[in-house]
Structure formats: C-alpha cells, structure tokens
Write a structure and sequence with these properties.
The complex is a heterodimer of chains A (about 350) and B (about 230).
Chain A: E1 4-10, E2 15-23, E3 29-38, H1 40-44, H2 51-73, E4 82-88, H3 92-109, E5 113-117, H4 118-130, E6 136-142, E7 147-153, E8 159-165, H5 171-181, H6 189-196, H7 223-238, H8 245-270, E9 275-279, H9 286-299, E10 302-304, H10 308-311, H11 315-327, E11 349-350
Parallel strand pairs in A: 1-4, 4-5, 6-9, 9-10
Antiparallel strand pairs in A: 1-2, 2-3, 5-11, 6-7, 7-8
Chain B: E1 2-7, E2 12-19, E3 27-35, H1 40-55, E4 64-68, H2 74-91, E5 95-98, H3 100-108, E6 114-119, E7 125-130, E8 136-143, H4 145-155, E9 159-161, H5 163-167, H6 169-172, E10 175-176, H7 184-196
Parallel strand pairs in B: 1-4, 4-5, 6-9, 9-10
Antiparallel strand pairs in B: 1-2, 2-3, 6-7, 7-8
Helix pairs in contact in B: 1-2, 3-7
The chains are: A alpha/beta (about 350), B alpha/beta (about 230).
Chain lengths: ~350, ~230
C-alpha cells in the first residue's frame, strides 16, 4: 500500500489548526504541515477564552489556515486520503465551525471523515516526534482546560482509559488565575514560568492538593492551591510587606509540578507501565518537564514530551490521530456526525 | 448555471440545488429542509449531498454557491458559512453571501413595501425593510419589537413576513405573509445578478449585529475579607 495523506482540523478552543500527516505503508508518520491561527490575543483582555470570540475567529481563520497548510506542504486537497476533525471535548460553538468545515471538505472531495477526540489527539502528537507508542503507556495531559492521567493500551486507536483527572480547575487554569493575582498577563503559564526562574520554589509551602492518605490517588485539585496563593498575597499586602513575586511564582509552580509528577510516577509504578508521555499546553512548562525528567530517571521510566509547538492545540495532532485510526482500519464517522462538547476520553472516535 | 443554496440563519436547515438562467426566475431542482434549530451542524452537509443526488448532479457540476449570511443566531449561522466557505475552497467555486432577509423578501415577492423580521431570541427581532420592487431600504438591524413598531410609520410598510413578524404580530400590527424561512430559490434570486455576471464575491462576513457577551474583569477578586 502506498502513502496516505491525512488532513487534521482542530477548533475546540482558541486555536484554529490544520495539519497534514503522511502515513507510510509501515505505519510511520511524517508531519508535512502544521498551521495554526490563534485568537489568544483577542481573549487576553478578558482574562480567559470567550467562547463567542473564539468561534468568530475560527470562522474567519478556517479557509486561510487550510490554504497555508496546503501551500506549506505542496499538497492539493484532491490528494488527501482522509479527513480527521476534533468532535470533542471543547467549546460547543468552536467545535461546530471545524466540524462543519471538515464535513464540507469530506463531502466535496468524497473522502472519509473521522470525528475524533481532542484529548487522544494530544497523546497522538507525541507519535509525530517520538514514533509509535509502546504497547502500554501512561499519558499526563495538562492544559488550560484539562488535567488527566490516561492509560493507553494497544495503541491510540484501541483503548484509552482515564485513571485520574482534576476534580476542579485544570492546571493551566490555575496558572491563569494565579497570573491574574500577581498582575501578570494572560495566558499565565509563560510569564509565571519566566518569573519563577528568579525565585525560590521552596520559599512558601503551598498545599499539594489531594495528596492525603485517603485522597483519590490519581486525581488532581488545583483550586485550593490558587486560593492559598491568593490568601498568602492578601495577607502580605495587609501586613504592608512587599510581595516577593518571583518566590510566589516559583513556589506555586513547584506545587503544581510536584503533584502532577508525583501522581504520574505513582500511577506508572502501580500500573507497571514504563513510559510516560506528557502533553498539552502546560507540558511546555520548564519546571514540569524538568521535575518529570528527574523523577522518571530515578524511577526508570522513559519520559516522552513533544516539542512545545506539538504540545499546544494544533491540527497536526488531529491528523496524527486520524492516521492511527486509518492505519488500524477504523470505519469512518457518519456525515451527520455531531459535536460532543463533553466527549469522554475513552471515546477516541465518534461513530 | 447550477447553484447550490444553503442557509442556517433561522431554525430551518436549508439546502437546495437551483438552476439559474438569465431572464428567468431560479428553478428548484431539489431541496432538503429540516426545521430544527439545534441540528444545523449535523444535518446541513447530508442535506446538501441528498439534494444533489435527488437532482441527479454531483459537486463537480456546481457553478457557484450562495449562502445566507444572516442575521441569525450565531452558532447556527456559522455552520452555513463554514460549510459554504469550505465547499467553495474544495471545489474552487465562488461563494456568494446574501442577507437572509433579502432571500425571505424575494420569496414573499408581494409587490408592496415589506418588513422582514426573523427571531433574534432575547425578545428581539432581526429586521430589514424592502420597497415595492423588493429592494432593501433599511436594515438589517436587531431591535426590540416595541422599538421597531414605533418606526413602522416612517418605514411605510404594510405587510410583514418572517418568524419574528409572526411571533410579534400583535406588537407590530402588520398583515402577515406566509414565507417564514428562506427558500433555495429565494437565496439564489437574491444573488442572481452577481452569480450570472460571475462577479467577484463579497467577503463571507456573517451579519452578527451583536457583539459577543463578554465583560472585561475589573480589579482582583479577593478570597479574604478586605
């Protein structure tokens, strides 16, 4: 069998992504295009993603982003073998733009359509950089909207089981909220990471959520941490002290990275898994990847973290997941496919 | 010319295949319409494929696409525009946006000054006014029916059509015509001159008429008592 070109479309949050991946006869993946249009700057003054603003931006960006992906890869739409699109989870109005466009491309070109899971796409992104996943692996997915521990068995097209998730805020959401407390810009990840490098992560002992002996072993909680940072800052302000911003940022970041990595390593040990993939926007955080590398090395676990560009939302990861499904011989989704804003992670494809 | 018409600016999910020739009204070959304000995303593309099949045509046979650009509830409205834009790109065919109210006015073809009002939800209507020849003289706007009613004498319309006109008939007090949702022929008629002239299409800009509901945060939320 010859090469097959898989198109991926992503529009679940504030990034319009179009990716093109070449699926080789041996199942290998080659990334040919990865174009992203982000509306993040339009959301910054609101301190978070405004769904209607994001949806409007997707509609404007869809066709131009597709054009750029085709130009960058030298591929024509008629050469595409299959089309994958994020069908959930995500913002309802945002998802709908990508799915509507994907259906139209698929119908006009008479190509199979795969409505896929955004979260599984984040894990698939790693296979574009590090090759096929082992038979069993653990994925820590951390972003502005999600914080989950997933067990992937027999490949992405086969089985994904959620073994833990946040019970309140996502890790990235906590970053955004703490950034606001410290008068840092949105999104909060990069400025906190930068500031934290000048601070002492052990300066303030912020709480590690859900780490008590009776707490859920693999679940996360970050809203208490955020409140704790707020209380600490407000107390210091009341006392007329100067706020040690770098120490607050570093100590907050330490608490997040500590809990995420400790629980991931514990799960890997408990489940007897020797590979950990960290993906999602927060995977780009230097302390998270640094601490994960340290702890994985100690525990004899192989750590895989895709480059930052592949960690954040993009169309390439959706094309990659589509390629895994096509390679596994999955049936296409129906053309009356609906978007599912709350799609659970164990549903890799909507049929 | 073979024209595909789509509209998702009202609760109707509308797709149709229309034959357009100079000097004659658009002729419908096939259409699929479902009244379901929550199914635009699911049904539009299947409706397009089914219409083409019933008309005995393929996507490659199409010469142009006409799409209703609203005004209409945003989420549904975007389905039609995203679908039409992607089809146009995939098929390399021009996509002509028309005001959905224009298409409804074409359908009514009453020969009298006409108000077209669709349901904008939140107790408001999207409206536009047309003269006896069917040319748009005002709008589209979004407004409370009570405020629109005060403007009616100045607009000089006697008749009204559209779902908004029906819902608020008692407020508007106009004779109601039966052409609630835009038909494929009406959509194509509204763009006929440009389609036949193979004019360069206008940008596919949705007629939102409202800004997104979003408020900029002010100050920091305190978690302790001030």
């Amino acid at each position: 069998m010859s090469d097959r070109l898989i198109l991926g479309i992503e529009s679940s949050c504030d990034e319009t992504g179009v990716g093109i991946v070449r699926l080789g006869p041996d199942g290998s993946l080659e990334l040919l295009a990865d174009e992203v249009a982000s509306s993040v700057e339009e959301h910054a003054r609101f301190g978070g993603v405004v769904p209607e603003v994001a949806s409007r931006a997707h509609l404007e960006a869809m066709v131009p982003t597709m054009r750029r992906a085709l130009d960058a890869s030298g591929v024509e739409l008629s050469q595409i073998h299959s089309i994958a699109v994020t069908a959930g989870p995500g913002l309802a109005g945002a998802l709908l733009v990508g799915v509507a466009a994907a259906k139209a491309y698929a119908a006009a070109l008479n190509k199979p359509l795969y409505g896929v899971n955004h979260l599984a796409g984040h894990v698939a992104a790693d296979t574009l950089q590090h090759g096929p996943l082992p038979q069993r692996c653990l994925a820590l997915l951390v972003s502005g909207g999600h914080s989950q521990l997933l067990l992937v068995e027999g490949g992405l097209a086969n089985s994904i089981t959620e073994i833990g998730s946040t019970v309140d805020d996502a890790a990235g959401e906590a970053y955004d909220k703490v950034a606001r407390l410290l008068d840092l810009p949105y999104p909060g990840g990069p400025p906190i990471d930068k500031l934290a490098k000048q601070g002492n992560g052990c300066a303030i002992a912020f709480p590690r959520g859900l780490t008590g002996p009776r707490d859920a072993k693999y679940d996360f909680s970050f809203s208490g941490l955020k409140t704790s940072v707020a209380r600490w800052v407000e107390r210091a302000e009341r006392a007329g002290e100067e706020i040690p911003l770098a120490d607050v940022a570093a100590s907050f970041q330490e608490a997040v990275a500590d809990v995420l990595t400790a629980k991931a390593i514990r799960a890997a040990k408990d489940l007897n898994v020797d590979t950990l993939v960290i993906s999602g926007g927060v995977a780009a955080n230097s302390r998270l990847s640094g601490l994960a590398a340290e702890r994985c090395a100690e525990a004899g676990i192989e750590l895989r973290v895709p480059r930052p560009r592949l960690c954040t939302d993009n169309g390439a990861m959706i094309a990659a997941l589509g390629a895994h499904l096509v390679a596994a011989g999955a049936k296409p989704s129906p053309m009356d496919l609906s978007t599912t804003p709350g799609l659970p992670v164990n549903t890799v494809q909507i049929l | 010319m073979l024209v595909l018409a789509v509209d998702t600016a009202t609760p109707a999910v509308t797709a149709g295949v229309v034959e357009l020739a100079p000097d004659s009204p658009p002729r419908l070959l096939a259409k699929r319409v479902t009244l379901n304000a929550k199914a635009h995303g699911e049904l539009l593309t299947p409706h397009i494929s089914d219409s083409l099949e019933e008309a005995g045509k393929t996507f490659a046979d199409l010469d142009a696409i006409v799409v209703g650009a609203g005004p209409g509830p945003f989420t549904g409205l975007r389905v039609g525009l995203a679908t039409a834009a992607a089809l146009g790109q995939a098929l390399n065919r021009p996509v002509y946006p028309v005001a959905t109210t224009d298409a409804i006015a074409k359908d009514a073809a009453s020969g009298h000054p006409l108000l077209v009002a669709t349901d904008a939800r939140r107790k408001e209507v999207y409206w536009a006014a047309y003269d006896a020849a069917g040319r748009r003289t005002d709008g589209p706007h979004v407004e409370r029916p009570q405020d629109l009613a005060e403007k009616l004498p100045a607009l000089g319309v006697q008749q009204a059509t559209g779902e908004g006109a029906e819902i608020y008939q008692d407020v508007l007090g106009l004779e109601l015509l039966q052409s609630k949702h835009p038909s494929p022929e009406g959509l194509v008629a509204a763009a006929a001159a440009e389609v036949l002239a193979k004019a360069r299409p206008a940008a596919l800009t949705p007629l939102y008429l409202r800004r997104p509901d979003a408020v900029e945060p002010t100050g920091r939320k305190r978690v302790t008592r001030a």
